[in-house]
């Protein structure tokens, strides 16, 4: 049942077991039940639906869409005699709600009011040095998955809609990266076949693109059907994948491999192309093209980042010049309009 903290917490657990019993034997007790349990259930689900609609960190177990479907079904039996069939699904919903109340310490001093905040302190395994090294080598992508996985698995609980949204986005990304990485692979091979091109210069981008394709294919094969997984399956998977020594860092690195290796293959392919340009048009034009690409990438990265994300004075200067140019252009447009 989990850890008990008080007698009232035990009452919640026992009430959940009572509703499980009623769900399996509804015909025996339907005559003893009052129709008010249906009205109270509708009120609870309405409250939960509103909580879900107004908060991204709600602890209610059902989504807004699921709540709407449940309310439609419950409203059909409102005001009708409480028979065994109605009591069966009413008891199932009450059991699920009391189970969630037990897990979130409903009514207790340390109740979990936010999905991302555990009701009790947890020992978070973190390796800042290794995580920084992994982010440096893999373009900062592991940090994104590391944060997401920790937000998904709080207090050994997983909310199925958040899990499905996360894993669906990952699978969609991995599938798309297969196409892009294969395109880089073909492009790198074609560049190596150009006149005066070096075959050895194609080795690095080909290996990086192949690594992206291989890692993405394995992840897609391993996570087939995970989009429709239940909350208990997702919790079991994350509990197993969470290392006792490294936490979610290994899984974060694995999830980052397809995209990170694709980015490496892109960078290496550009370097291969610049090297070919240097052999055809000379070092001056190659360095000029490389400088232009580097400046463009640097500008895009910092202009699309939040100001608090980079204290770099160079980035601040570039942003300042851009805002000055943008405001001057706007004033000129207004003057012409007048």
From TrEMBL:
TM regions (residue ranges): 177-195, 202-221, 260-277, 284-304
Domain of life according to the entry: Eukaryota
Q: Which UniProt keywords apply?
A: Membrane, Transmembrane, Transmembrane helix
Name of this protein: Uncharacterized protein
Please give the organism: Suillus placidus
């Amino acid at each position: 049942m989990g850890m008990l903290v008080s007698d009232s917490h035990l009452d919640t657990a026992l009430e959940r077991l009572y509703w499980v019993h009623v769900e399996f034997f509804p015909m025996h007790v339907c005559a003893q039940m009052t129709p008010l349990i249906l009205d109270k259930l509708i009120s609870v689900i309405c409250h939960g639906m509103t909580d879900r609609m107004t908060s991204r960190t709600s602890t209610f177990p059902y989504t807004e869409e699921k709540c709407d479907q449940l309310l439609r079904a419950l409203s059909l039996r409102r005001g009708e005699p409480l028979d065994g069939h109605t009591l069966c699904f009413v008891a199932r919903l009450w059991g699920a709600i009391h189970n969630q109340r037990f897990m979130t310490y409903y009514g207790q001093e340390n109740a979990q009011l936010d999905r991302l905040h555990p009701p009790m302190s947890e020992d978070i395994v973190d390796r800042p040095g290794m995580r920084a090294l992994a982010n440096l080598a893999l373009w900062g992508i592991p940090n994104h998955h590391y944060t997401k996985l920790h937000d998904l698995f709080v207090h050994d609980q997983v909310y199925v809609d958040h899990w499905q949204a996360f894993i669906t986005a990952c699978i969609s990304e991995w599938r798309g990266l297969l196409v892009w990485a294969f395109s880089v692979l073909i492009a790198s091979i074609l560049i190596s076949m150009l006149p005066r091109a070096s075959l050895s210069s194609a080795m690095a981008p080909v290996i990086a693109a192949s690594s992206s394709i291989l890692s993405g294919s394995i992840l897609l094969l391993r996570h087939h059907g995970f989009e429709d997984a239940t909350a208990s399956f997702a919790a079991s998977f994350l509990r197993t994948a969470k290392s006792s020594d490294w936490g979610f860092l290994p899984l974060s690195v694995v999830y980052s491999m397809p995209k990170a290796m694709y980015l490496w293959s892109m960078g290496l392919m550009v370097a291969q192309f610049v090297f070919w340009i240097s052999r055809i048009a000379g070092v001056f034009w190659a360095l000029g093209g490389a400088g232009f690409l580097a400046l463009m990438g640097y500008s895009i990265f910092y202009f699309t980042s939040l100001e608090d994300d980079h204290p770099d004075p160079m980035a601040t200067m570039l942003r300042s010049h851009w805002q000055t140019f943008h405001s001057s252009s706007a004033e000129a447009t207004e003057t012409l309009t007048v």
